[in-house]
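Tutorial sheet, problem 5. The two components below are modelled jointly, 1128 residues in total.
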Amino acid sequence: MNLSGVLIPFVPLLGFIINGLGFPKVSKRWAAWIGCGSVFISFLIASVLFIQSLTGSFESTTISLFDWIVAGNINVGFSFFIDHLTLIMLMIVTGVGFLIHVYSVGYMHDDEGFGKFFSYMNLFIFFMLVLVMGANFVMMFIGWEGVGLCSYLLIGFWWKNREYSAAANKAFIMNRIGDLGFILGIFLMFITFGSSDFDKVFAGSSAFATNDHVMVAITLLLFIGAIGKSAQIPLYTWLPDAMAGPTPVSALIHAATMVTAGVYMVARSNILYSIAPISLEVVTVVGLATAVLSALIAITQSDIKKVLAYSTVSQLGYMFVAEGSSAYSSGIFHLMTHAFFKALLFLGAGSVIHALHHEQNLRKMGGLRKLLPVTFITMFAATLAISGFPPFAGFFSKDEILVATYEKSPAVFWILAATSVLTAAYMFRLLFLTFYGEYRGGHHQHEHIHESPRVMTVPLMILAVLSTLGGFLGLPALFGDTHWLSHYLEPVFAANTRLTEHSESSLLEIMIVVLTVIVIAVIWWWCNEKYVKKKVAPAIVEDQLPLWYKLSYNKFYVDEIYDRVIIKPLEWMGDFFYGKFEANVIDGAVNGLGRMTVWLSGQLRKIQTGNIGFYVLSMVIGIVLLLIYGLSKMNLF
Amino acid sequence: MFALLILLFPLLITLAILIRGGERVSRIALVGSIFELILVCNNGFQKFYGDASKLEMNVPWIPGLGINFHIGLDGLSLLLVFLTALLYPFIVRASINPQSPIRNPKSFYALMMLMQFALIGVFMARDAFLFYVFYELALIPIYFMCAFWGGERSIPITLKFFIYTLAGSLFMLIAILYLYFKTPAPHTFDITAFYNLSLTATEQSWLFWGFFLAFAIKIPIWPFHTWQPDTYTVSPVAGTMLLAGIMLKMGIYGLMRFVVPIVPEGIAQWGNFAMILCIIGIIYASLIALRQNDLKRLIAYSSIAHVGLMAAGVLTVNASGLQGAAIQMLNHGINVVAMFFMIDLIEQRYGTRNMNELSGIAAQMKRFSWLFVIVMLGSVGLPLTNGFIGEFLLLNGLYQHNAWYAAAAGLTIIFGAAYMLRLYRNVFLGEKSNFNNESGDVKGWETRILVAFSLLIILIGVYPLPWLELTSNSMQELIQYFSQQATAASL
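Model answer (structure tokens):
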């Protein structure tokens, strides 16, 4: 069992190497088989381990391959760790990852960089698996930065487009801001615990008092990393731009897996966070603010992928709110259901974009229900899931988060509940604009629209099933206390299990169910009125918009503010240092010396003949003579 | 004897080149430098892990003055000698370009090999006088190479470099002489004897500046760096590689060999100040690098940022900082030489190294752009590349010293990514530029050199342990001398 666990990340790495070195010699057919097959093998191995864990023949294991960095107080093993939390993540990453790989075979079929695409995707899976399987925080950091690299490569996959490569750079650089926080947190861990191994760190943390400064500092520094990777305020602006990448990339990296790394990391470090309630409050506030802000932006966007991107940011905020409320297993639960329905939404959007020949503007869609039936039905399921309509997957996970927050702070609960309404609103708006009403694109195009090939629709269907039924892994107390997932994760969150077993929450849950149904019914009616009967399409003329719409449409001008406040001043400083400071101040001081130099060199020139060969020769002769003089003292000759 | 062989072999090659002459001297230099690498690998490492005493040699040279011909190879020296020997074949090969043959190759390659002799001498010397001789000797060939084979305005620029560094080392000479006279009569220049001197805090404070100025100029540390970007930019590619890849390590090495064990009290007084200079330099140079359009100048400034971090790591005098600086010297040498080599390839093919004139060259040079990515990742310190190991240990060392220093110096993680990705995007991505590239993608030996560099970057990044172990004893010794001296001074 030990060895097979290690294989999980390395099979996709092998796929990367073959497809990477073989490109473009390996045929598309083979590239697809290698790319998908390697992830599928990992999925199979992970499944075997997962089944073992269900039957009870599995124990958490650490597998050490070799000592990686040993110097001073640093001792990092190249080691993997598998426990129940890892297994859940492994199933999500390899399972959803595999489906998206298969989908990509259809989506990328006509792309000249087909093999290259699969090699990048496999490399991503490798790093993502290292991230969730690392046995210490430095190993996690390998995966952490590695997925950032793959994200960079895949956002800029169509590299001839300068805007795309700008988005790729932005993603990488903003992630690195978070990474700096993460790595500083690791350093503090080494000072505090003498190690970054999970077992040693978590065991050592028990010696600390609640809200001990060191623990608060470590958890906050780690959370800076999470903010970058999981696109939270203030480092979220890279994610919407990251939609420049091919749509399967958005589904895999920028929705289902990579961006949830921060959520995983906080869950993994739950023992540390529980000692630092201050940090948990920061996590809650950041998550909540992000959930609200990005939902507000999502509601007016006219690019189908941008809507989904802001929705992802918002949902990640949900997960952090859950974790901030110490409901770690609810955070992971939502991570899982979100991976299903958001991957599905992106792949569905990809199917639409594919059918419309790379049209992403909601204005130019509409009425696609009949033309793309599979895409429509699956996306419909996903929309219900993300809106939290019972009994779709999102309902259970959201419900759980809401209940958890209510116990902690009713204010947070109400804000989050209001955000849920916004979520349903922007999702049904997207659904209606895309599939209902009449087609708003050109007539010529209309005739060419057809459903995507089977290789794309089958993954959609599987994900639709998961989005519909996935929630039953975490049935809440209301339906009889059989919350499988939180029991499964109990060993990881033992100190912090927060099962929804409190009976007083039943009333709350019923209330949530009823409210959700009513709200969604109202939104349905409203969307129907607006987008079908009145045929309203998203605005394009900015001047006529009301202020709130304009603010939302322009993403509250956050990018522009960053540009003015951070980027421009840094550029100005660079120019000032180079143009003014360097030449006038520093060199001004050196020039005094320089003038002396000129005078000196004038004197020296008199004894120079200008024949370099002569200089070299005389120098060498001099050295040799010196050496002979020295060596003669040794009686060597 | 083995040590002597390693030291003298490049001099032998120099003589061979001078005697043989002709157009084929570059081949002599290439074969010679490969042999030197084999010598270092075979004899150096073998003896190091076997009978290490064979790597030391101590004979009187000018006995009247207490000057000994004392050379040795501990882990730290061996690391740098290996780095020198490793990079030399690449540098020699990179300088051979049939399209634009080097003028007066005999002198050029003789200077180059003489330079190797001097560099190895610096890293092996155990006698301060000998060290000083090699330290100055190394300056002469590089000066001529850069001045006479360099680009526009190379003579005034390299003269500035020459005088600047020479002036710096004069301070070191004074410091060495002072230490010499402090040793019990008959005086000696032996470095280990210096380690055991008991010096007052005031003395250490002055001595610190004597050494620090010399090394700070050589490295260079902000604000002593203004010679560097111009010199790197105008030098011929081999000269730039020698300067950035190996020569600046003389400064870091000097900090380790002299400053740390001899003047701990000086570090206690001035270390923080010097570290802050280093950190200012990291941020300052990174911000300038972000705005450069000349590729060579961009890498020159990025190098100031990188070496600033190494120097700061040394001054923390903890195991992590020192070990990080040691392995980062190796890594930086590999990465920066590969980087300058690639910039030279771009310039040869497109006739410019101005970022604004280049665009989309990945379309014409697919293989090259991939290899560039690997080297770039090494230079931005992505985990599983060599750069990460060094950066991680260095920043960790700084963090142990002062968390805020680490946070400020850690900005290099962000800025480094920003300026390298900007370079990559502007030069490699986008639509193809108007320039014609008749040579096409890298091929033959060019590919082989770059693949070798890329493999080194990944191998060291995945399995750095041998390199960390190589220097760990030397670093422990330094720390011991440091703390022993510090307690002596405080008594």
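Marking note: The mean pLDDT of chain A is 87. Full credit if you identified this.
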